[in-house]
Give the backbone structure.
Amino acid sequence: MNGINLIALGMMFLLSPLFSFAWGCEGHKITDAIAYNHLSQPVKDSAAAYLDGVNFEDAGCWMDEIRSNHDFDYLKPCHYINVEKGESYKPSTGDNIINELNKVISQLKERSKHSKEENAIALKILLHLMADLHQPLHVGYGIDKGGNTVELSFAGHNSNLHKVWDSEIIRQSKITAADCLRISSSYFPNEISSIEKIDVLGWMNDSRSHLVEVYGFADGTVSETYITKNTPVIEKQLIAGGLRLSALLSEIFGKKG
Ligand SMILES: [Zn+2]
C-alpha cells in the first residue's frame, strides 16, 4: 500500500462515525415487512402515497442513508435514548428517540397541516425509529454508549456489543422476515392485541427489560450459547416492532389527518 492509500485509509477511519446506533438494515427491513404485512390495503395505500414508489422496507433505512448529509445532522441523536442502569426515564425536551417518535406521530396525525415533503420525512423517521426502539441497546446505558464501547469477540473477529445486537446475530442466525412472519402467525389474537397496545414508553421499557440478557456474555466473547439464547429475543423484538408499527400506522392513516 503506498503512502497516498495509507493517508486515504487513515482519513476513512477519521471520518467514519465513532459509534453505531442502528439496527443493521436487515433489522429495519424485517420490522417494516412485518408491519406492512399486517396493514389493511387502505392504510397501506394512504401511507404509500407519501413514499413516491419507495417500499416500506427501503424507506425504513432512509435515516441511516442520510447520516452523512449535514442537512439532517439534527436527527443523529434521535436514533436512541440513554437511561442509566437502575434509573427510570425522565421526560426532557432534548433530542432522543422518544421525543422524536412522539413528534412524528403527532405530526402525521395532523398531516393536513404539513407539506407532503414534511410528512414523507416524518413517515420515514417513524418507519425507522420503531425498529430502533426495539433494539434494547438503542434504549440502553449512556455509560458504555449503548454497548458501543463494549468490545467483544464474535465468530473469531473483533466486534462490539451494540453491533452484535444491531446486525451480527441477525446475520449469523440468518433471521429473515419470513421466519418472523411465521412465528408471529402462531401468536394468539389476544397476545397480538396486548403487544399492539399503543404505549411508546411502555415499548421502551419492554425493550430495556431485555438488557439483562444482552449483558449476559462472559470472557469478552459471544458464545454459541449466547447466540442460541438471544436469537429468539431478537426475533421477538423485531416482531413486536413490526406489530406495533402496524398499529401506529393504522391509527394514523386509518383516519383523515
Ligand atoms: Zn437508527
The chain has one domain: 19-253. The chain has a mean pLDDT of 92.
